[in-house]
């Protein structure tokens, strides 16, 4: 796994080619990322299925419950196919923008 720490978030990217294993790995080491906004870079997976992305659902829910952002980046599925519980955007820049917006909302008490 590649991990890049930025001012307002940590970017995580898989070095292998197994999305479900990547989700499981992040779950196992999750304590390292508690209290930080996360961007999960899944751009390398251009043939991802909805079930593959659902493997991140529990982790996403747990992380967002702590009032931190959990944004995944992937372009394989259309927005209409993705459940509202998952936040998936097509670019890293959009993920950064989402985190910025969510930070403002949290500062304002939303």
Structure description:
The protein is α/β, with parallel strands linked by helices and 110 residues long. 36% of the residues lie in helices and 16% in strands. It contains four helices and five strands, in the order E-E-H-E-H-H-E-E-H. Helix 1 links the parallel strand 2 and strand 3. The chain is globular, with a radius of gyration of 13 Å. The protein starts with a strand and ends with a helix. The model has no long low-confidence stretch (mean pLDDT 92).
What proportion strand? Answer: 15-25%
Distance separating the two termini: 33 Å
Radius of gyration: 13 Å
* Largest sheet strand order: 1-2-3-4-5
Summarize this entry quickly.
The protein is about 35% helix and about 15% strand.
Topology:
Blueprint: E1 2-5, E2 10-13, H1 19-28, E3 38-41, H2 50-54, H3 57-65, E4 70-73, E5 88-89, H4 92-107
Brief descriptors of the model:
alpha/beta, 110 residues
